[in-house]
Amino acid sequence: MAQAPGAPYGQPPTTPYQQPPQAPYQQPQQPQFPPPQQQYQQPPQPQQQYQQPPQPQQPAPGYAQPPQAFGMPPAAPTMAAAGQPAYGAPPAPAQPLGSPGAAAPAGGDEDPERPLKIGGFPSKFGAAFCYAPFICGCLPPLYGLIAVFAEDKQNKFVRFHAIQSLMVWAGLLVFEIIVFILQMLVGMVLRMTGMYEIAGIIGIVFMALFSLVGLVVFAGLCAGVVLSFMGKPTRLPLIGNFAAKQAGMTV
Question: Are 176 and 210 a contacting pair, CB within 8 Å?
Answer without folding.
Answer: yes
